[in-house]
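Is this the right way to post structure tokens for a design question? Let me know if I should format differently. Anyway, here goes:
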């Protein structure tokens, strides 16, 4: 393709209409290929965005489910009540660390 373009440029240097037509045809073909490539890139970026959103939603759902399971496995102590109503800061820190650890595990499992 590059040789055809150079040949067309050489022909066009002498002022022929055929050379100009070949150059225009080649430039149109190049633009068409660039447009197809940019559409593929946009489609790939859209797919990456959709995948990221889906994985984030799945991760949040799993994280909430793990917190609910942890809440149910401690029947003597209601974690939510202790943190919100009794203002138990130590338990809030432990629960936050637990959620952070679970988030790291879920993120590494997803990727």
């Amino acid at each position: 393709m590059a040789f055809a373009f150079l040949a067309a440029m050489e022909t066009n240097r002498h002022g022929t209409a055929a050379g100009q037509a070949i150059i225009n045809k080649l430039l149109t073909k190049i633009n068409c290929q660039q447009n197809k490539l940019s559409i593929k890139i946009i489609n790939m970026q859209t797919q990456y965005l959709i995948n990221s959103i889906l994985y984030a939603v799945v991760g949040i759902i799993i994280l909430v489910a793990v917190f609910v399971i942890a809440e149910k496995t401690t029947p003597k102590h209601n974690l939510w009540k202790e943190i919100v109503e009794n203002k138990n800061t130590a338990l809030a820190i432990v629960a936050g660390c637990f959620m952070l650890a679970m988030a790291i595990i879920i993120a590494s499992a997803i990727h």
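Format looks fine. Someone answered above. Worth noting: The chain has one domain: 2-110. The mean pLDDT is 76.
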